[in-house]
Amino acid sequence: MIIDAHSHLAANPEDLEKIVNSKIIEQVWLMDTHYYRDGRMASEKEILKVSKKYPGFFIPFGFLDFRKKSEIVDKLFEKGFIGLKAIRPAKPYDDPSYFSYYERAEKLNMPILFHTQIIAHATQKEIEKGLSLGPTNMRPSMLQTIAAAFPSLTIIGGHPGFPWQEETLSSIWYYSNIYHDLSGGDYPLFPEWLLKVLNYRDYKGKPLTEKILFATDRLYGRKENHDNIFEEINFWQQLFKRVSPFFYWKGDEEKIMYSNAKGIMERIKK
Questions:
Q1: Using CA atoms, how far apart are residues 141 and 127, in angstroms rounded to an integer?
Q2: What is the number of helices (H) and of strands (E) in the chain?
């Protein structure tokens, strides 16, 4: 079984039974990105509805909208969101003006998944006003300030941080509450970089295989996407199976595909 720790839901989703009954996927974390104006992404209500219909399978992460007051964190929690998704901030993630959002999330034990690399093209007409169009405010190193200020906050870097991969490495090497997912790694040399990183240990001696989460960043709820999701799962399972014997982390691929994410979810639900 695997856990997809970073994905999305299509508006008017269909064919979800194929995913739920696959006996391959145990859990899917759904990130709310309804700020796109084209209507293809599920709304807050749709995400919560699907999560309630399949409790424990689809885990809802609400959109952390920095344009609203920090009370938005409490409101999302009250609605039923388990975690938060941060993306396209007008200011850098580590700007002190955002600290009140992180303080509230830490108190509510809500993990935050931060987008941390190049970002999908979008014009000013395609997304809501007040959101950034480029990745400058979302560098992986910015998570380090947040991790230091809020040590009990679970922080997940969405994606490996391209083109700032060294910042990603330093984050997971030094900060115990920072994780990164491997989705969005479809750029040159990513598999080589990842396999090298997995062979390291953090500054306390723990293997970095404990800091990486499997994720697809795919759009669930579209029949044409679901076969691609299973293909991607199979690709990573086969890659890890074939290469791990050549590294000291042989057998740790289960942590990446499943138990790291499982552990996060178990801790935050206590």
A1: 25
A2: 10, 9
